[in-house]
Amino acid sequence: MGEFLDAALGFPTALFSFAMAAVLVYWVLALLGALDVGLLDSDAGDGDGPGPAALLGAVGLRGVPATVSLSLLIALAWFFSLVGNVVIDSLAGSLSTPVLIVLGILALIIAATLAWGVTSGIVMGVRRFLPGVRAARTSGELVGRTCTVRTLRVDREFGQAEVVSGDGSTMLIQVRTIDDEPLASGDTALIFDHDAKAGFFRVSRFDPALDPGES
Predict the structure, then answer these.
(1) What are phi and psi of 183, to 5 degrees?
(2) Among 157, 135, 141, 130, which residue's Cα sits nearest to residue 191?
(3) What is the per-residue pLDDT across 127-146, written as a single tens digit (0 to 9) for each?
(4) Is the pTM above the cut of 0.85?
(5) Please, which residues bridge with residue 180 across strands?
(6) What span, in angstroms and rounded, lies between the C-alpha atoms of 193 and 142?
(7) How far apart are the first and last CA of the chain?
(8) Are 115 and 159 in contact (CB under 8 A)?
(9) Nearest to 163 by CA among 111, 203, 127
């Protein structure tokens, strides 16, 4: 355990270890419904510069939520740098400090490059094999369907819900309300609009009495 911690906190792995810790905390909170998986996709580019999603798209990582591609990129970079650090540590006894520093920088570059390559390949695979999901999200064909809230709340600024598409598959979508009454986890909502530019669906509380399918 001590050797693992030394490698994880040594250069260059330490640069990714702290980012990896932040990724783990984020996904725990996301699974609990406290944070939105589309957090980095919302309002991307509305500030003075491009948002995280735009930056990731510029390096070929467009096609999945920015939080997913960024988390995968960090995790892979951390792993590859950890492997490099272990190799460098095994050579530490026979090499001078300047040489070890150069090897550390080289390991950092290689880890980042390999992480980008693998992440890019995975994202390309997702875009190729899940075209129906992407089309559903961008075409607005889910408008008129009901969905189930999966985050702790849904309001004007935050929320996700699960919806069943036409082929019977389920997907998690970004949703927002238009009033000040939030929806809670487990509530059923009606999708009535799709904001293609912002990348989310507008929903309202669903009243089963208005469902024409109910007798």
Answers:
(1) -95, 150
(2) 141
(3) 666 544 444 444 567 888 89
(4) no
(5) none
(6) 9
(7) 63
(8) no
(9) 203
Q: Which residue from 67, 62, 79, 82 is spatially nearest to 122, judged by alpha carbons?
A: 62
Residue 124, phi then psi, degrees to nearest 5? -60, -40
More confidently predicted of 2 and 203: 203
DSSP letters for 113-145: HHHHHHHHHHHHHHHHH-HHHHHHHHHTTTTT-
Tokens 């994880």 — which residue? 8
List, in sequence order, every residue forming a beta bridge with 164; answer none if it has no partner: 170
Owner of token pair 């999708």: 191
Question: Pairing between strand 153-154 and 188-195?
Answer: unpaired
Concatenated DSSP letters for 64-119?
S-HHHHHHHHHHHHHHHHHHHHHHHHHHGGGS-HHHHHHHHHHHHHHHHHHHHHHH
Nearest to 189 by CA among 170, 215, 171, 207: 207
